[in-house]
């Protein structure tokens, strides 16, 4: 009888193991899912979708993907970008195909080395990028993206946004001129119509109510001159006017975040990503010391923390070529070769600029070479 029970338990266990194996399978051929990050300081509340993954960006801006996939980003039902290549770092600049293409062309700095930072800064004046960034910053719960903080778009905002989108005069178009995108007055832009229908306060807050109309205010009685005659449960004309002013003042508009605010935010995010990428690499030595008589070829190698170094490009300069001369560089071996060409007591700095694979960003590292 005991052997029958053992056989039954074994059969169940084997079935569960087989089922577990099926549930754990995917179409990626066993490739582990990667985690990317939208911006650096966090960007929560956006929906993302790839061919295999979907979800909402976390507080740190995190999303999941398999290598080679592209991303669609939305805020509620409003599509922001499609076919964005999924990578460890994605910014709002890469939401736009023309900007994404331009990012692949580096500029040359004053030292004669290629860099991506100037390219990024030159692209920040793109009108569509400014329009989208300003709207997303306006949808942030606190509307004040502080240093080392990201954008937080709460579900309460998304629910109101989805309800408002069908009511707009025309769909939101990020490609229109900024003056048109941010228009106020008697014919507000769709972006401002959208913001006017969203309350950024807890549900039930007075500021989320419809403001008293001018007619309601006009028809309400004036507050009695004698304070003893006031009814604390009654809203007088002055009370309704003050309430209307409070509610209207709480409505956000696009002009509260201007282009310079958007540029400052984007510059901060881009700089932090560059620093993060750079911190993943180091040289196999920081300072090298050689006697003047040793004129043989020396090498310095780029290393990547915790992984193999895979570079797409590398170049280098010597700040004092009369003391230390660059001989050659090789992106495949991630090495720069140099030799001593000066006398004892001289020194130079070797500045290396290299681009890792699968990114347009260039990293810069330096080696101090001392001649003994």
Task: Give a description of the structure.
This protein has helices at 2-23, 97-102, 117-123, 127-139, 155-164, 178-181, 190-196, 214-219, 237-249, 259-278, and strands spanning 34-38, 43-44, 47-49, 54-56, 62-65, 70-75, 78-85, 89-90, 107-108, 114-115, 151-152, 281-283, 287-290, 298-304, 311-318, 324-330, 335-340, 347-356, 363-371. By secondary structure, the chain is α+β, with helices and mostly antiparallel strands. The strands form 6 sheets. It has a 4-stranded antiparallel sheet with strand order 4-3-6-7. It has a 4-stranded antiparallel sheet with strand order 12-14-17-16, with no helix packed on it. A hairpin with a 2-residue loop joins strand 6 (70-75) and strand 7 (78-85).
Characteristic key phrases:
4-stranded antiparallel beta sheet; alpha+beta; 29% helix; disordered N terminus; 372 residues; single chain; 19 strands
Spatial strand sequence of the major β-sheet: 4-3-6-7
What is the strand content?
Answer: 25-35%
Largest sheet: 4 strands, antiparallel
What is the ordering of alpha helices and beta strands?
HEEEEEEEEHEEHHEHHHHHHEEEEEEEE
**Structural class, judged by helices and strands?**
alpha+beta
Question: What is the CA-atom radius of gyration, in angstroms?
Answer: 30 Å
Q: Report how far the terminal alpha carbons are from each other.
A: 87 Å
Q: Give helix % range.
A: 25-40%
Per DSSP E runs of 2 or more residues, the count of β-strands stands at: 19
The geometry reads as elongated
Uncertain ranges: 1-26
Q: What is the overall pLDDT average?
A: 92
């Amino acid at each position: 009888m005991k052997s029958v029970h053992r056989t039954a338990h074994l059969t169940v266990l084997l079935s569960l193991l087989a089922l577990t194996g099926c549930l754990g399978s995917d179409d990626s051929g066993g490739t582990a899912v990667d985690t990317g990050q939208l911006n650096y300081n966090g960007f929560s509340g956006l929906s993302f979708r790839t061919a295999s993954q979907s979800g909402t960006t976390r507080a740190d801006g995190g999303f999941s993907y398999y290598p080679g996939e592209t991303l669609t980003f939305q805020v509620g039902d409003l599509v922001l970008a499609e076919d964005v290549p999924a990578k460890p770092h994605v910014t709002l600049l890469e939401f736009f195909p023309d900007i994404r293409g331009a990012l692949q062309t580096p500029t040359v700095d004053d030292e004669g080395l290629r860099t991506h930072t100037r390219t990024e800064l030159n692209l920040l004046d793109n009108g569509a990028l400014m329009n989208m960034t300003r709207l997303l910053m306006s949808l942030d719960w606190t509307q004040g993206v502080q240093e080392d903080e990201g954008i937080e778009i709460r579900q309460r905002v998304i629910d109101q946004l989805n309800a408002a989108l069908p009511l707009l005069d025309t769909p939101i178009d990020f490609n229109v001129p900024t003056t048109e995108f941010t228009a106020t007055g008697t014919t507000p832009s769709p972006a401002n119509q959208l913001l006017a229908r969203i309350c950024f306060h807890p549900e039930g807050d007075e500021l989320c109510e419809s403001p008293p109309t001018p007619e309601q205010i006009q028809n309400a009685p004036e507050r009695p001159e004698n304070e003893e005659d006031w009814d604390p449960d009654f809203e007088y004309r002055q009370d309704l006017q003050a309430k209307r002013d409070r509610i209207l003042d709480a409505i956000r508009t696009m002009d509260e975040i201007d282009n310079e605010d958007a540029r400052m935010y984007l510059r901060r995010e881009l700089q932090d990503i560059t620093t993060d990428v750079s911190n993943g690499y180091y040289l196999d030595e920081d300072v090298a010391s050689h006697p003047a008589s040793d004129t043989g070829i020396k090498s310095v190698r780029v290393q990547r923390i915790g992984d193999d170094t895979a570079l797409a490009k590398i170049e280098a300069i010597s700040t004092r070529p009369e003391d230390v001369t660059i001989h050659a560089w090789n992106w495949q071996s991630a090495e720069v070769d140099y030799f001593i060409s000066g006398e004892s007591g001289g020194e130079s700095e070797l500045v290396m600029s290299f681009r890792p694979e699968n990114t347009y960003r260039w990293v810069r590292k330096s080696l101090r070479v001392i001649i003994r």
